[in-house]
Amino acid sequence: MAVLLIVEDDTATNEAICEYMRSAGHITLSALDGEQGLQIAREKSVDLVVLDIMLPKINGYELMEYAKSIQLPVIFITAMDSTENKVKGLKMGAEDYLAKPFEIVELLARVEAVLRRCNKIGRM
Questions:
Q1: Which helix (H) or strand (E) is 104 found in, with range?
Q2: For residue 111, what are the β-bridge partners?
């Protein structure tokens, strides 16, 4: 079990990801904009962030800078699917990058792979 912060401005997508991750045994925290995501990341103990790039208030790249500074693993989920954007996200320090649309079961597999790699599974 891990604590996941889902930062996605599309409410339906955010809710679907949260619900699926909870059904897999994870705890989810949710933010609909980058500012709210940053606040949660600062105040709560989070194991991994699932982060959209195109967000209101603070974009995903800016939030990634904060996550990197505290060694918080990030998986980008975004419609920005060009190779250039993928490379930028990974070079910034993201653990993974998943282009929309994606299958939620694939997102779960990637989340759990990152958690294993970062020794975050079973931390609680």
A1: helix 104-117
A2: none
Rounded to whole angstroms, how far apart are CA atoms 21 and 26?
6
Strand 74-78 relative to strand 27-31, pairing: unpaired
Name the one residue in this structure whose structure tokens are 């800078």: 65
Beta bridge partners of 7: 31, 51
Radius of gyration of the chain (CA): 13
pLDDT digits (tens, 9 = 90+) for 21-67: 999 999 999 999 999 999 999 999 999 999 999 999 999 999 999 99
Work out the end-to-end distance of the chain between its first and last CA atoms, rounded to an integer number of angstroms: 7
User: What are the E-state strand segments in 1-124?
Assistant: 3-7, 27-31, 48-51, 74-78, 96-99
pTM above 0.90, yes or no: yes
Residues 58 and 35: beta-carbon distance below 8 Å: yes
